[in-house]
Amino acid sequence: MARIVMKFGGTSMADLDRIRAAARRIAAQVAAGDQVAVVVSAMAGVTNQLVGWCDALMELHDPREYDSVVATGEQVTSGLLAIALQAIGIESRSFHGWQIPLHTDGAHGRARIGRIEPDALLASMEQGVVPVVAGFQGLGPEGRITTLGRGGSDTSAVALAAALKADRCDIYTDVDGVYTTDPRIVAKARKLDKITYEEMLELASVGAKVLQTRSVELAMKERVRVQVLSSFTDGPAPREGALPGTLVVDEDEIVEKEIVAGIAYSRDEARLTVRRVPDRPGIAASVFGPLAEANVNVDMIVQSTGADGSTDMTFTVGKSDLARAQVLLGEMRETIRYEELLCDPDVAKISIVGVGMRSHAGVASTMFRTLSERQINIQVISTSEIKVSVLIANDYTELAVRALHSAYDLDV
Amino acid sequence: MARIVMKFGGTSMADLDRIRAAARRIAAQVAAGDQVAVVVSAMAGVTNQLVGWCDALMELHDPREYDSVVATGEQVTSGLLAIALQAIGIESRSFHGWQIPLHTDGAHGRARIGRIEPDALLASMEQGVVPVVAGFQGLGPEGRITTLGRGGSDTSAVALAAALKADRCDIYTDVDGVYTTDPRIVAKARKLDKITYEEMLELASVGAKVLQTRSVELAMKERVRVQVLSSFTDGPAPREGALPGTLVVDEDEIVEKEIVAGIAYSRDEARLTVRRVPDRPGIAASVFGPLAEANVNVDMIVQSTGADGSTDMTFTVGKSDLARAQVLLGEMRETIRYEELLCDPDVAKISIVGVGMRSHAGVASTMFRTLSERQINIQVISTSEIKVSVLIANDYTELAVRALHSAYDLDV
Question: EC number(s) in its UniProt entry (chains A, B) (predicted)?
Fold first, then answer.
C-alpha cells in the first residue's frame, strides 16, 4: 500500500464530466489498495473571473478581501468532487485550508506555507474517507483566508505530500508529462520517464509551464517524488513501472542520466543594450541598482569592454517591464553618460538543461556549433551548472530548437 | 447614532454595478452617523447554479458537501462589497460564518442559528470598520460550514441584529416594501408604512414573498424592528419618519391599526377530497397519519358529515406533493374504505390578514358576501385569529383579490 496525493488542475475540474472522470481515477487508485488524499484547483476560468471582479471594483484592492473572494473557486470544486466520489461509492469529504488547518504567513495573495497539521487528514484516510483539499488556500495568522499565488495548488499538493509523508504526489494536468521540448515545435519530441528536480526547476524557470517553479523547489527541499500525468488519457490507474507520466525525482533515482534532458524556449524577454558607457568601477551597480529598486527583473547580463575605455552592457528584462526600463534608463543618461540605448523585443531565449552536463565536457560547444551551422547569431550567453541559455533573434526560435533537439540525440 | 444592520438580497448583489450601488447606500448611512453592519446574499442566480451542480452529481448528495459548495456565493459577494466600500473610502472587512463565529446546529442545509459571538463584529464597528457578513451560512458543531436553507440570509440578518442589539434591521430587496396586495394584480394596491410581526408572518406564510417566514418569526421573538426597502430606488439613506419602506414592528408601535392589512393569494396548493368515508372515530388520523409520515404537508382541512353516516374530507396539499398524495391515498382505499378520490390542482387560496380582526366583528362575513356577489364559490374556509383564508377556483383569483381590496377600503 502506498500513500499518494493526487492533484487535479483547472482543466481537470473544468465541468461536471471532468469532475466525474477525476472521481473515477481516484476510485481506481483506491481500488488498487492505495491510501489517497486529493488536492484540487478551481474550475478553469473561474479564478480569472473572480480576480477580474476584484480588479474592476478597485485597482489596489485589499489583498485580504481578494483572497477571501478568489479562494471560493477551490471550495466549490473540493465539495463537488467529494460528492462525485460519494456518487460512485467512495467515502470522501472536503477540507478547506482553515479546516485542516494549513497555516501560512500573512502575505495575502502570495502567502508562504508554514505548519500543516496532518492529524485531521490522516484520521480521515485511516477511516477510509478520501480527503479532498481545496488547493491554493490557507489560514493566515489573523484567522483570515490566504492564497498562495497563481498556480499555488501545485505547491499545496507538494506541501501536503510532505506533511503526510506520502510516497508520491501525482499532478494531473492537460499534458501527459514533461517533454524533451515543446511538441508543437518539434514533432519528434518525446516524453521523459524521469527528470531530476534540478532539471525540472531550470525548465520551469525558462518557460516549460508544466509545474509551478515554487512547487518544484518545495518538492526538491522536502524530497517529495512528483509525477506529472494527464487526466485526459483514459486507462487504468497509474502504477509505477508503467510510468504513464513523468516522474520528478532525486538525481540518485536516475541511473541513465541524459546529458541534455530538455530544450526550452521563452519569448517573454526583451534585450536592452547600453552603448559606450565609460568603464569605471561601480558602473554595473549604477545601471542595475535603479532597475532593481523599480522592481524590474534583469535576467541575462553581458558586459564587453572595448579598447577605448568604454564598455557595452547588454541585458534582458521581462517584455512587460521593457517600457518602464526604457524610461528609467533614459532618465539615467546624464548620470551614467552612455552614448546610446538600444532595445530589441524580438528575441528568444533558448536553453538546454541536463544534470549530465556536470560530468560531460563539450556540451555548450555543441550548442554553439549547431547554431553557427544554421547561421544563427548568438546575442547573449548565460550558463549555470546544468543549463546553457542563449539569446537569439525570435525568427530563428523553431529552427534553433529543432536543430538542438537533433544535435543532442533527443529525437524519437 | 443608531446601530443598523443592512441586508442586501441577491438582486441587490447581482453585478458589480449593483454592488457599487449598495456600497453607496451603506456609505450614506455611515455618513448619517450610524453604526452599520452589513449582511449579503449571493449574486442572483449563483446559488441556483451551485445547487444544480450538486444535484446533477448525485441525487441524494451529502448535505455537508452541499453546504460547503453553496455557501461560496455569499463569500464572494461579502468580499466584493468590502472592496467596493474601500473603493469609496469606507473601511470595511468581510466575515464568513466561521470567522464570527455564528454557531448553528448540525442540520446541514437547514441549520438553525445558535449562539452568535458578537465581539469581533462589535470591535470592528467600534474601530469604524464596516463588517460585511456572508449571510445564509454558519459554523456547525463539527467545525464544518452549514447553511440555513433558502432565503436564509434574511434570518442571518435578523439574528445578527438581535445579537448586536441593533436598533433596526433594514432588508434591501427588489420591492420597496410590503403592499396591501400584489400590485401586479391590483393597480390600486398601496405600500404599508407599518405592519405587525403577526400580520407579516401570516402574509409570508400565504405567499407574499417579501420576507422569509423564519426571519419574521425570529424578529418577533427577539423584538427586532425590521424594515423592508428597495435597493433599486435612489435617494438619501432611509431615515425613520420618512419611511421609504415598510417597518415590521410590534403591535404596540402601530396606533391606527388596519382591520385588514393585506390580501394575499397562493396558487401553490391543490385540493383533494376523499368522498364518502365511513364516519367513525379515528378516521381523520387514519387519513392524515400516513400523509404526515410521507412528509406531505396538509394545509386546510374541512370535514362534512352527511346524513347516511358517511363523511367527506376535503383538504389541500402543496402542488408538488399532489402526485405523491394521490398514490398514497390510492393505496389506502381498502383500509379506509372511501368511495371516491377527487382532486383539483386548479385552485387558489385567498387570505385576508389583519390584527384589527381581533376586535372587529363581521370581517369574515364581508369576505364571504363580497365573493358571493361575484358568483365565486368558496370550496374550503380556514381561519386563524388574524387571518381568514378561502379556497376558490384558480380562474377567479384576480377578480377575488380586486374585489376584496375594494371591499376592505384598501384602494389608494
Answer: 2.7.2.4
